[in-house]
Amino acid sequence: SSTGPAGYEFGDYCDEEWVAALNEVLSDPVVDKCGDEEAIRKFLAQVAYETGYYTTVYQPADGGAGLIHMIPGNWAVNAGDMDALWPGSSYTAKAASMGKSFFQTPAYGWRSVAAWFKRTSRVIGGCGEDLFEES
Q1: Could you tell me if 8 and 58 are in contact, meaning their C-beta atoms sit under 8 angstroms apart?
Q2: How far apart are CA 23 and CA 44, in angstroms?
Q3: 16-49: per-residue pLDDT in tens?
Q4: With the C-alpha atoms ordered 1, 49, 61, 108, is the resulting torsion angle positive or negative?
Q5: φ, ψ at 7 (rounded to 5°)
Q6: Alpha-carbon torsion (122, 107, 103, 69), positive or negative
Q7: pTM of the entire predicted model
Q8: Which of 53, 112, 116, 120 reaches 20 to 30 Å from 73, CA-CA?
Q9: Which residues face 65 on adjacent strands?
Q10: Is 108 helix (H, G, I), strand (E, B) or coil?
């Protein structure tokens, strides 16, 4: 665990559990980027930027949480997109009950980023493309 400014939650997010969850998402048929080195590089570069090189998954200034710095106003949208991409897992209900911790877990964190790349980026004006295909 790392120390930093008060309010920030630091840790190590590159352990075996996080790597396994990443590989699961990249190989999932919805994402299907396991063999695309360029897409993986861009995906991981964005996450490295968003997390301070994989050290924090929470920003107290705006309450952003997770690997893509999902601000609270976008939590329900992103979880809904996860439900649309991977039906039957009740991501919306889980995100509502877990709050920021939903986005801070290996099980949901990488899927959240994938959903952002696939759909949720539409919350930014002018975006909304499948960023896996556009990047």
Answers
A1: yes
A2: 12
A3: 899 999 999 999 999 999 999 999 999 999 999 9
A4: negative
A5: 95, -25
A6: negative
A7: 0.89
A8: 53
A9: 58, 70
A10: helix
